[in-house]
Amino acid sequence: MASLPSTRRGFLTLVGTAAPVIWLAALPRGAQAALPHLSVASNATAAALKYTEDASKAQAPRKTGQDCSNCQHFQGKAGQAYGPCALFPGFDVNAKGWCAGYAAKA
Ligand code: SF4
Q1: Whole-model pTM?
Q2: Which of 62, 66, 102, 105, when mutated, tests ligand 1's pocket best, judged by the most ligand atoms within 8 Å of its CB?
Q3: Most buried by CB count within 10 Å: which residue of 8, 27, 57, 95?
Q4: Is domain 8-94 classified as CATH 3.40.50.720?
């Protein structure tokens, strides 16, 4: 188990190392770097769920008006062009996109 530094220098080194990590973790989501955009070319789940960047080009079962911005899985803010999706961790999806995992916001 790691022990706390016993010297002032050791303590300052520890604080200096940890501070940037703590600072990044404390940033609001919108201030962090954007995630890579989801792509059906490199993500098998996106392909299976027929993800598209342009909901207007999606095939059935999409219904008129459905897009990522009004899906309950979309975690971006209103007006944001891209945002995270609970179904695709580590990626941003297009707010105007769509996939078969769509579920209307309550
Ligand atoms: S689950 Fe919803 S937010 Fe995520 S890609 Fe599909 S339609 Fe968009």
Answers
A1: 0.72
A2: 102
A3: 95
A4: no
